[in-house]
Amino acid sequence: MSAAEFRRWYWLKSELVDFARTLEVPTSGAKPRVADRIAPHLAGHAVPPATPTRARAEKIDGVIDRSTIIPPNQTASQQLRRFFEAEIGSTFRYDYFMRTFLADNPGKTLGDAVKHWHETRSAQTPETLQQLELIRFTKTWHLAHADGTAAQCRAAWKVHRSLPVDERPGPENMSPETL
């Protein structure tokens, strides 16, 4: 299989890991990272190394407030969720932007994180996040087919995922009646 053909298809993470093992390519990391090691291998190029696992985050002790410093390798936690819900309200959700901010900004404060959350409410999640494809498909399909059932959406997803990327109709074009 060529790298170009490999990129034409949707892959589950488990399928990527199995494929990477047969190619003797490192299997650690998120789905896009594994795919980004397989494609160069198939093209005969050097495979990027696996990224090292992040060290565990230091636990934030004591009372936390807007001046609390974000430690290295901070992840989404229930302790922080309670803080953010108290500061932002019940609409707070960990999303791509907030998780990335916490992980990539040690030394900043939780006040900076609250500000970042408000600043990113209208931002679009990057399309490059392959692991979100099913979520994007489901949302788009249900918006286009308000009376469609979950079973019809799953059937549409199975058809969608079975096709090469460049031959897929959009979810809005997959009518429940034709499945």
Give a quick set of tags describing it.
single chain, about 180 residues, mainly alpha
Question: Please, could you describe this protein's structure?
Answer:
With 179 residues, the protein is an all-alpha fold. The protein has three domains: 3-42, no CATH class; 56-123, no CATH class; 130-178, no CATH class. Helix content is 46%, strand content 0%. The chain is built from eight helices and no strands. It has helices at residues 3-7, 13-23, 31-42, 78-88, 96-104, 110-119, 133-144, 150-162. The longest helix is centred in the last third of the chain and has 13 residues, at 150-162. It is flat, with a radius of gyration of 20 Å. The two termini are 30 Å apart. The model has no long low-confidence stretch (mean pLDDT 86).
By secondary-structure content and strand pairing, the structural class works out as mainly alpha
H-E string:
HHHHHHHH
Strand content: under 5%
- Fraction in helix: 40-55%
Shape: flat
Distance between the termini: 30 Å
From the alpha-carbon coordinates, what is the Rg to the nearest angstrom?
20 Å
Domains (count) = 3
* Mean of pLDDT: 86
Total beta strand runs: 0
Segments where pLDDT lies below 50 for 5+ residues? none
Instruction: Quickly count the helices.
Output: 8
Give the biggest beta sheet. none
What's the short version?
With about 180 residues, this protein is mainly alpha-helical. It is about 45% helix and about 0% strand. The radius of gyration is 20 Å and the shape is flat.
